[in-house]
């Protein structure tokens, strides 16, 4: 009986020790799980969702795939980038808010969407702001722009890379547009952004915000009369199948930032943050040539497919959209003049 008691006591001691070890291990596993999602302590893999509204095969999608390849390679597998095209994670505004709340997501967005957090950022997508996208990229290197990104960080968002060329936006419609007068009353799909809404109101149209994925069926059903976007995006959404008129308005030249929430990004080790930034810039450079080449290619394909292409008088459109620059009282005084002075003093 006494001997049996000793065995029972021994077994109890072993079980207790194993339980304590399991608890200790469980605590470490929890930390490791957190590391896998953010801190990567002990070399754990960090998973990053890469979200964008564009379709597979478009230049932005090719950029994202290149970014994934470079980041995973240079981090020796410590970074895992998961791609979510076609707004799979939700609308742009919703995903930005999710990122702000700590979701492990980097999203391609527009400076017009960031205007909700830092108003002056909205001017980067204002109509006919610059003569070239090179001018826009230059602006992102200035102290003025750094001040804006610092303000954005205070709101919980960080710009990971600015080196993404989205392209020149044009207008594709169900009836021909030769001048702003032809746009009166036309329902034009735009992003859910005040900058675009004000731009198309100034042109006499009725701006209709909706996700990219809804453009095709909305045109089919007559809910909208047209959409605007860079040529590869118009092709990616198959807008040319249901709208046979293209006006080369070039109303906005677009470069786009990729943005993460500071709540997530700050948990990533410094070396991996740097890899994400550097490979994001590198992927952006890779995609610039693709974007330009595909824009030229798509224009020729549109012509061959029977799309009527109209080269409009840009001065008429510029004149009509000047009012956009006085439409936002939340912008800093003389913001347009500030930007133009920066461009004039460009070294």
Short description:
With 347 residues, the chain is of the alpha/beta class. 47% of the residues lie in helices and 19% in strands.
What does this structure look like?
This protein is of the alpha/beta class and 347 residues long. It is built from 13 helices and 9 strands. The longest helix is centred in the first third of the chain and has 38 residues, at 2-39. The N and C termini lie far apart (94 Å). Residues 1-21 form the signal peptide. This is Tripartite ATP-independent transporter DctP family solute receptor. Keywords: Receptor, Signal.
Which features characterize this protein?
disordered N terminus, globular, 47% helix, 9-stranded mixed sheet, 13 helices, alpha/beta, 347 residues, D-Maltodextrin-Binding Protein, domain 2, 9 strands
